[in-house]
Amino acid sequence: MLTGLSDVLSDKKDYCGIVKISTFAADACEGYMSTEITMPKLSDTMEEGVLISWKKSPGERVARGDILAEIETDKATMELEAFASGVLLETRVKAGDLVPVGTVIGIIGSEGEEISSGEVAPSTEKSKKPKDSERKPEVKVSEKEPLPEQSLPVTESGNEPPPRERKDAEADRTQGGGLEKASPMVRRLARDQGIDLSQVTGSGPEGRILKEDLETFLLETEKKQEQPQPSGIPAEPTGTTGSRPPHRSSLSGGSEPLSRMRTAISRTVSESWQTIPHFTVVMDIEMGAVETLHKGFKDAGDSVTLNDFIIRSVATALLDFPRLNASWAEDKIDIHPEVNVGIAVNVADGLLVPVLHDCGNLSLREIAHQSRELIERARTGKTAQGDLSGGTFTVSNMGMLGVDAFTAIILPPQAGILAIGTIADAPIVRNGHIVVAKMMTAVLSADHRVVDGAYGAGFMKKLKEILENPVRLVL
After folding, report:
1. Distance (Å, whole) CA 45 – CA 56
2. Which residue in 438, 436, 408 sits closest to 420, CA to CA?
3. Which of 61, 90, 109 corresponds to the end of one domain?
4. Interacting residues of 125 by C-beta distance below 8 A, sequence separation 6+
5. DSSP 430-445
6. Would residue 208 count as lying in a domain?
7. How confident is the model over 207-218, as pLDDT tens digits?
8. Catalytic pick from 278, 294, 369, 448?
């Protein structure tokens, strides 16, 4: 076993033949080997990604941590970092290509180093997935050991995606003249406004279309529509009252192609509902003490939300009920060593679940700070590597929408999800008297293969105890 840098250097001949190496060994081996850049699995639901643009050119010097490329997953746009230093010798895919996870997209090595030619990834369709024995290792995207892959059912090796799926992917890639011209957020806004991006002039780098460009396009379109018609064109006939009806009496029908995000969501929830035997536990929780603490934080200028209290309480309760921080794995149950809470976030085109890692060891203020940044990145389409992967339990809160209670669908392969309703005044009996209290309904959905009803009830009872006596959350 190698124990130090001197051992690595003395044995570099053996270690430098490994493509997937730690960042420690990468420096020792620099100059002796090339490193393959592969399409990484940037989220638990990712099977393929679109390379939006290269940030480095062949022949350019690269340092570990530099941004190599911008990649779009089925849910967001992320930046791909270099995990080795050297020279970018070759790029094997071009902007706009749809690339399966694990495919080699480029090579980093020493200047002047000769590299063997490799197959270029397909640009419009999924290629056949290599067998496990043939799959080349990925460049490491996280120093933590990854948790079991969550999400979408993976197509068996060698199968082509369904024709509809290919069409949707191609349509999403070609809208507005190529993905390199607009971010996912801009494309979603364009779809919502009915704007054809090919008609919009981009003011960003390399003609990239920005949000401001959409706003300018809309203003110019409105001005054109407001211009008076030539006198030779008859005016539009009016009704007997001389004005248009105040609102439409019918909806415009039709169909719209599925976005990549909606396709991913449909596969995930279908897999969950068809394969996970859900059961639910409902509990009403008095939230008056939490609201008092929340007001104190707010008055002190701390940006701590009610949802942060709930996440902190869930993480604390999971430490006592670890089987809900687990995954079903056919012949075993994997209990995860860290509590990584996913936060369901509504975005323009669907739903994202960014993950707060190691919540069990975070303070309330740390949870508030990290969750605020996670949610902001999710809503602006700027999620970072690791934001969407590794979740072990999920919280979905629709209380701010005025929802009293609802049942959430478990995100595979997690074993549970907590649905949170609004906080409202409700009558309760206390010491034989009817009083008004701030009440919230929480609904646990759990995987019956992993836990039974009594275990789920125990978790909810613990959660209720923590939220109704929340002083420990701020200690």
Report:
1. 27
2. 408
3. 109
4. 98, 160, 161, 166
5. ETTEEEEEEEEEEEEE
6. no
7. 778 777 777 887
8. 448
CA dist 81 → 38, 157, 346, 376 (Å): 11, 28, 27, 21
Answer whether residue 418 is part of any domain: yes
Taking residue 303's Cβ as centre, other Cβ atoms within 10 Å add up to 11
Query: Residue 198: inside a domain, yes or no?
Result: no
Indicate which CATH number applies to the domain containing 310.
Answer: 3.30.559.10
Active site residue 278: no
d(CA 29, CA 14): 10
Half-sphere exposure of 106 toward its Cβ, with a 13 Å CA cutoff? 32
In this structure, the number of other CB atoms found within 10 A of the CB of residue 306 comes to 18
Between CA 185 and CA 176 the distance in angstroms is 13
CA atoms of 161 and 165, how far apart (whole Å): 6
Q: What is the CATH classification number for the domain harbouring 36?
A: 2.40.50.100
The domain total for the chain is: 2
With respect to residue 251, please indicate whether it lies within any of the assigned structural domains.
Answer: no
H or E element at residue 10: helix 5-10
Count of helix runs (H) and strand runs (E) in the chain = 11, 18
Per-residue pLDDT tens for 395-445?
Answer: 999 999 999 999 999 999 999 999 999 999 999 999 999 999 999 999 999
CB contact at 8 A, 295 and 303: no
pTM, two decimals, is 0.59
Percent share of the chain, pLDDT over 70: 71
How is residue 34 written in tokens?
A: 């090339």
Host domain of residue 17:
5-109
